[in-house]
Fold this sequence. Notes:
It is a single chain. The chain is 31% helix and 25% strand. By secondary structure, it is α/β, with parallel strands linked by helices. It has one domain (32-297): Metallo-beta-lactamase, Chain A, CATH 3.60.15.10. Helix 7 (212-221) links the parallel strand 10 (202-206) and strand 11 (229-231).
Amino acid sequence: MLSTSKFVAIALAIFLCVIATLVTGKVSQPSEPKLVWTMVNVNTAVQGDAHLIQVKRGKTVLIDAGYPEIAQEQLIPFLQTNHIDHLDLVFVTHAHRDHYGGIEPILQAGINIKEVYFNLPDKKICDREIPWGCNYEEVLKYHQMLKAHQAKVKSAYPGQTFNLGNQATLKILYAFDGINTPVGTTDINDMSLIIKLEHAQHKYLFTGDLNRAIGGYLAKNSQELAADVLDVPHHGTEGLAPNEFFEQVGAKYALVPSPTGLWCSDRSSRTRNWFQDHDTPVWVNGFSGHIRVEDYGDRLAISAEKEDNTSICS
């Protein structure tokens, strides 16, 4: 049984909580988000992807890293300003330089990478994109560079699940090899890792440069795409997954890793029109700068580095 003194102390604590609620008129909200996803602006001149995920009392994760030159100007200062001295996990969605190139300046800045998931593409598929796309020898060089810095370089495959701490999990939904796929041989973009992040009641989908072939297949056959916030595939450009893919995701908010010129070009008109027609709020790196998604468990808050963050092209 509780002693009289303990009972009085508990009753007093409850009474004070009730009084505090009545005085303020509201129940206090968590002062800090439990998870933060920042779509870092590596889209100042040309397109790129870089997504930093920070879990309170948990892991720090980077998905893609942008071109090396822009990463040096944008990603590295952002990491340093936020006192990021290590990355627990890095995922490279696919073997294009605007997604993996920033790894080099990260290492040069002395930021420790513990594990990186970076699938080696099929050389024949890679060589088809010479000189504009995939560079097999450079990809090999980056693998060796990471190993030289004591990073564990691993392959990503469907079903891999990572516990990030504090109710957050990350799962590789799909990782096609470009050869043995349901749609036959694909390009490098359709080898993009499709990654789902979940925290409390919220879901986030990262899509790399998912294109029409695999995107169309997933729209018809996947039951795992639903998400609250979507990282729009392939910088929002025409070759990306079809509109049926957006319908399956059903996102409440869309974030686009794209510079203003690309987003406002004819190449992105289908994507712009779809989100506008569906009244989906959109944030674009080129307009918004760094885009920050704060997850408090029971609610989300999205903010932008630049106040004038309109994504509507005139």
